[in-house]
Write a structure and sequence with these properties.
The chain is α/β, with parallel strands linked by helices. The protein has 12 helices and 8 strands. Bound molecules: thiamine diphosphate and magnesium ion.
């Protein structure tokens, strides 16, 4: 296991503002979705990604649109960072016909294959196998595409993790396994579920590189992801990247958030906000000005206001189209 710091990244202003813009886009979309959920506007479940934005953004910064991502139940951030339009993601959660899955899927069935988002899912674990499968197809087709699985600490004691990582390792598949270790699976602390809480260390068991990063530091995530994506793309095989992070909202909107963690712990992690942290560092290092940061913030306010309006005013699917867009074409 090794630890990276982000110090090795040489960022242009444009790249830095992209990281900031994408993290803010996720944060503001999630906050709008959480409010909408409380107002009864979202018919399904809504697991937000608030606090964890640096991981999706730091990884997707190195992906092309023909690379693929297999996501989780906490997948809005992965979808947005991979390039899904905010308004269509929001409309999907509202169950509207204009949503990315035409209102059929909701939060846990976001599919945007045109940008390489191969699905969020309600089932913990099997997306790891799907990512390995995609990596195998890229190897067979001799392309240089890369496949990424995002998953939580809750997935790493599931058999799918062992099978997927091991197969990718023995066949040297172009896969990056990204564990978002937010230290809880619903309300179960990770150290209750395993005797070894060092996820990256498990990479050694499969003979692949494993790295732990501060998952609230987008530069550190980006540096680790850059190495893992390059390795996969150039035929070097898979890697495991573990980002240590924390979700600062409840497991899902509408759920209680007490009894298994303290207010003090949540507040301490809110102080380590990945967005505020990046802004301070960009200003300190002279990579961006306050005016540039304010312009990004203003741009995102407009994107989210537009997305919310679009989601609210779009129609629901017509009842007589209920069987459309459900089955694959034969
Ligand atoms: C196979 C399976 N088992 C159990 C569940 C119920 N479940 C939904 S989310 C969740 C916790 C997942 O925790 P983690 O993977 O750490 O992701 P996080 O919610 O912390 O982002 C569980 C157990 C499920 N959806 N699928
Ligand atoms: Mg977790």
């Amino acid at each position: 296991m090794s630890v990276v710091t982000g110090g090795g990244l040489d960022l242009t202003t444009e790249q830095a503002l992209w990281l900031l813009r994408e993290m803010l886009r996720i944060r503001r979309v999630e906050e709008a979705l959480a409010r909408s959920y409380a107002q009864g506007l979202i018919p399904g479940a809504c697991h937000t990604y608030v606090g964890q934005e640096a991981i999706a953004v730091g990884v997707c910064a190195h992906l092309r649109s023909d690379d693929v991502v297999f996501s989780t139940h906490r997948g809005h951030g992965h979808a947005l960072a991979k390039g899904a339009p905010a308004r269509e993601v929001m409309a999907e959660l509202f169950g509207k016909a204009t949503g990315v899955s035409k209102g059929r899927g909701g939060s846990m069935h976001l599919f945007v294959p045109e940008v390489g988002l191969m699905g969020t899912t309600g089932i913990v674990g099997p997306n790891i196998l799907q990512a390995t499968g995609a990596g195998y197809s890229f190897q067979l087709m001799k392309t240089d595409q890369v496949s990424v699985a995002f998953f939580g600490d809750g997935a790493v004691n599931n058999g799918a993790f062992h099978e997927g990582v091991n197969m990718a390792a023995i066949w040297a598949l172009p896969v990056v396994f990204v564990c978002e270790n937010n230290q809880f699976a619903t309300e179960v602390p990770f150290d209750y579920a395993t005797r070894n809480t060092d996820v990256a260390e498990r990479a050694r068991a499969y003979g692949i590189p494993g790295v732990t990063v501060d998952g609230n530091d987008v530069l550190a995530v980006s540096e680790a992801a850059q190495a893992a994506v390059e390795r996969a793309r150039s035929g070097g095989g898979p890697s495991l990247v573990e980002g240590r992070t924390y979700r600062t909202r409840p497991h899902a909107e509408g759920m209680r958030d007490g009894g298994y963690r303290t207010v003090e712990e949540i507040d301490a992690w809110k102080q380590r906000d990945p967005i505020a942290d990046l802004e301070v560092r960009l200003l300190d290092r002279g990579i961006a000005t306050q005016e540039q940061i304010d312009a990004v913030r203003q741009e995102i306010e407009e994107v989210v206001a537009d997305g919310l309006e679009f989601a609210k005013t779009s129609p629901y699917p017509e009842p007589d189209t209920a069987a459309l867009h459900i089955y694959g074409a034969s």
